[in-house]
Amino acid sequence: MLRKISLAQVGLVLGGLITVVGFVAYFADYATLNLAGFFYGIPLLLGGLALKAAEIKPIPFSEPTTPEVLSKREQQATPTQNQVRSDVTRYRYGQSAHLIDAIERLKLGGNDEEHPQLQALREGVVDGSYALILEFYSPFVPLSVWEEKQSKIAQFFGPNLRVQVTQPETDCVDLIMIADTES
User: Fold this and answer.
1) Where in the sequence is the domain holding 18, given as residue range(s)?
2) Is the distance from CB of 11 to CB of 42 less than 8 angstroms?
3) pTM of this prediction?
4) What residues form the membrane-spanning segments (predicted)?
5) I want to staple 164 with a disulfide (CB 3.0 to 4.6 A). Which of 121, 135, 176, 179 is the partner?
6) Assigned domain for 158 exists
7) CA angle centred on 89, ends 84 and 90, rounded to 5°
8) Each residue of 147-160: pLDDT tens digit?
């Protein structure tokens, strides 16, 4: 639940509220409340603004996860799949995009404008195994490049994973991370 709360919003609301109390206390001649409002409220407000400027919103699920898939996730999901799902479905700060470090290390796109952008994710079952499907908007990196790097992507995301790359529509690529239950 806390993953779904924006720290920037918390900082802005609390900082704004405490700052307003400080201003009211200043005009009402309450020195102690005035100092508390200025010394705590303004830094919180500025911190909230700074976080808001560096905030990346959580990636949504493109379709709800079925009970069958949840059962497969509990039985078969690898730590990497769980970590990726957890990371992209919460607020992030100080990065330009979700999974940007992985995208840069895999050399998918030349610069920030050309990097694929994670748009959504979904969970499913592929060949009887749990699969985490990352849906990228990738107008500058063609499917052929993704396919060339498929083994490198599987190696990057770690053991007990198979990776498939598909193109459901133009400029979109699905990266399917399948739990390898045969290993």
Assistant:
1) 2-53
2) no
3) 0.85
4) 7-27, 33-51
5) 176
6) yes
7) 110
8) 999 999 999 998 88
